[in-house]
Amino acid sequence: MEILAFGVQSDEKPLIEKAFAGHHEVRCLDVFLNEDTAPIAAGYEIVSSSVNATLNNRVLQTLAAGGTQLIAQRSTGFNNIDLQVAERLGLTVARVSSYSPYSVAEFAWTLAMAVNRRIVRASNRTRDFDFRLDGLMGRDLRGRTVGVLGTGKIGEAFTRIAHGFGMNLLGWDVARNPACVELGMTYVEKDKLFAEADLISLHVPLLPATQHIIGADALRMMKDDAILVNSSRGGLIDTEALVAELRAGRFTGVGLDVYEAEAGLFFLDKSLEVVEDDTLARLVTFPNVVVTSHQAYYTVDAVGQIIDTTVRNVLDYRAGRRSENVLVPAAPKS
């Protein structure tokens, strides 16, 4: 059986082909699965999608009509999939429930340190042989307060690094993580965390309850010199509200690896096109903002785990097994 994999990066392709070798053939495409590309999947029983796929009603209907029965998404997040429609159409949907939390946690700290120590600005200057230090002053993190929204596996890994810096630890989540408590974390209400943290990092999933959890009110509660980092999902932040605060001269730095309107932009080369997203265009002009293209997970360790789990999801489906990765189970045979 040949599997069709959408949205495969050039670095991923040899890893995917090697992982599926001896099990199934795999055809890798660099285009993302959406309404325009879904017809390509006609005749493929198993399709693998990436995090930036659009799996709405029309796409799912196209896939089902073409004979697809399993969608194996290569990501933890699944807010891009209409699961109710998939279930109605009898499509099985599986994801990667977990992978290396260190990849994202370490990258979140990379963003935090980059904006705190003005690394991008310094690097751009030295390329022009400008070695002045004006405007490059950062802050020690030891003794300052970090606020972690979401203390699951990634949030815990982020907290362990913060503990290593010698920071005061504040956390918010629907449930306390004993490992974070053992590190000295104090769980508080969101408003208190916003008001007291010098550095805030987001590690919650994107759900209706967390959509724009960082909105205008939350942003106004934060310290004027706070650092804000988002390596989770773009929809957690109201970007227009963030731009308004940045225009007012607030925040030491903002590090974003995700953006709420990133679909159709991230993972693609848009360098020769006119950017029609005015909010993003404005966001990247601020000297205290660093935006990267959803690469926090992109390590050989994490991507390898994601691919291995995707292979297992396919093998489980073929064998009639169900694991914790299945979001929509196989429809019962009539």
Automatic annotation (TrEMBL):
First-level EC class: oxidoreductase
Domain of life: Bacteria
Keywords: NAD, Oxidoreductase
A Pfam family assignment: 2-Hacid_dh
Domain named D-isomer specific 2-hydroxyacid dehydrogenase catalytic: residues: 8-327
Keyword Aminoacyl-tRNA synthetase (UniProt): no
Keyword Oxidoreductase: yes
Coiled coil: none
GO MF, any single term: D-lactate dehydrogenase (NAD+) activity
UniProt EC number: 1.1.1.28
Stored PROSITE patterns: D_2_HYDROXYACID_DH_1, D_2_HYDROXYACID_DH_3
Residues annotated as domain D-isomer specific 2-hydroxyacid dehydrogenase NAD-binding: 110-296
UniProt record similarity statement: Belongs to the D-isomer specific 2-hydroxyacid dehydrogenase family.
Name listed for the protein in its UniProt record: D-lactate dehydrogenase
